User: Which sequence fits this backbone?
């Protein structure tokens, strides 16, 4: 993905040399990955698995685009519900076919972190320094199971771009008990 050209001034930025080793990525980084992954992964796997990966990435990109809409209508919500069904089906198909064909191992940094954790647990234990097999676990996560609820929550409470998670400062408590505000209340 490092060889992917940039697009615009800040639409798609240049990728790092090792994307998988990055820490503390922002949401925009994941969005950029999703945009360029289909052409970057094309032809890397055998045809059947390549098609499954391309289908999954397309469905994820489509779902993400619909989730980012700031204004939904009845029609877009119907399309979003259908896209949610397609993406969950694509994830299950990917997990049951492609993931079963390939053995995936921990990254080197994951192995090092696991060894450090095991060494801290007790002086008598000898940690296994071999890279362990990692299973694709997305279908067993709460985030995956809540995906079908997202279109309904948009219909009930609106899109997520209009909320604010800003933490209120410590002065709000002093204002709540200010004599003038209590007297006016």
Assistant:
């Amino acid at each position: 993905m490092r060889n992917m050209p940039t697009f615009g001034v800040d639409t798609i930025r240049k990728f790092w040399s090792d994307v998988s080793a990055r820490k503390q990525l922002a949401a925009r980084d994941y969005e950029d990955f999703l945009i360029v992954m289909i052409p970057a992964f094309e032809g890397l796997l055998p045809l059947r698995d390549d098609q499954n990966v391309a289908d999954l990435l397309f469905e994820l990109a489509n779902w993400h685009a619909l989730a980012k809409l700031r204004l939904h209508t009845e029609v877009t919500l119907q399309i979003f519900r259908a896209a949610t069904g397609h993406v969950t089906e694509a994830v299950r198909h990917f997990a049951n076919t492609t993931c079963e064909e390939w053995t995936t191992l921990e990254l080197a940094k994951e192995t090092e972190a696991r060894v450090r954790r095991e060494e801290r647990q007790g002086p008598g234990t000898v940690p296994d320094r071999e890279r362990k097999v990692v299973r694709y676990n997305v279908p067993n996560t709460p985030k995956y199971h809540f995906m079908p609820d997202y279109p309904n929550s948009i219909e009930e409470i609106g899109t997520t771009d209009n909320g604010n998670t800003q933490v209120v400062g410590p002065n709000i408590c002093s204002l709540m008990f200010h004599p003038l505000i209590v007297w006016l209340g």
Q: What stands out?
A: The chain is about 55% helix and 0% strand. The radius of gyration is 23 Å. The mean pLDDT is 81. Residues 74-96 form the longest helix (23 residues).
